[in-house]
């Protein structure tokens, strides 16, 4: 018996030749319109399974699961980039932010962070690491669905709870209380200053010369109204720009 489907031969019925056999559109099976592959990384089995189930209902054809950075890394190298990855930041064996950066470098172009924290630094750090969306674990199913759809369409999405944090960008009130916008590079430099690194060490970490690092700090100082490193760090910390 022939299989009826797209491109399959159709046997003629009594009194009809195969050339005249016609299938109604309802009889022709259609593949699912949206099939995408996804990696879900979370160390909580119930949450991970719930996310996987929702993604399947949205059209995910293949769902890989991982409970740690090590498992996610193994999946990534074994299967190559998926269409989407959803990553917890609080993993037991390493930094979820580092995993975002690593997957991004391996060609994963759609990365969604799922986190418990609405800390401004964590939100900005996730996007700076290469994430396209930041969702809270407390988010409703509708918000998760909206975020995933937006990222699959090539967009960027922030949980409504954390969106106002992004709207402020990287503005830091200077010594005169006037907000000043810092560039992503200036924020990186300030974070390393806060970590106690010297200009030389900052330059090595960011592949910059010590002179360039000094120039960045001079610009930051002019913006914030102080040349004191400790005061610059304190102002940025109070604004939630660095941790």
UniProtKB/TrEMBL annotation:
Keyword Membrane tagged: no
One GO term (biological process): regulation of DNA-templated transcription
CDD domains linked to this entry: LuxR_C_like, REC_NarL-like
Listed Gene3D superfamilies: 3.40.50.2300
Residues covered by the HTH luxR-type domain: 175-240
Domain of life: Bacteria
Annotated keywords: DNA-binding, Phosphoprotein
SUPFAM superfamilies noted in UniProt: C-terminal effector domain of the bipartite response regulators, CheY-like
Keyword Phosphoprotein: yes
Residue positions, PTM 4-aspartylphosphate: 88
Domain Response regulatory: 37-152
Molecular function in Gene Ontology: DNA binding
Ranges in a coiled coil: none
Protein name in the entry: LuxR family two component transcriptional regulator
Species this chain originates from: Pseudonocardia kunmingensis
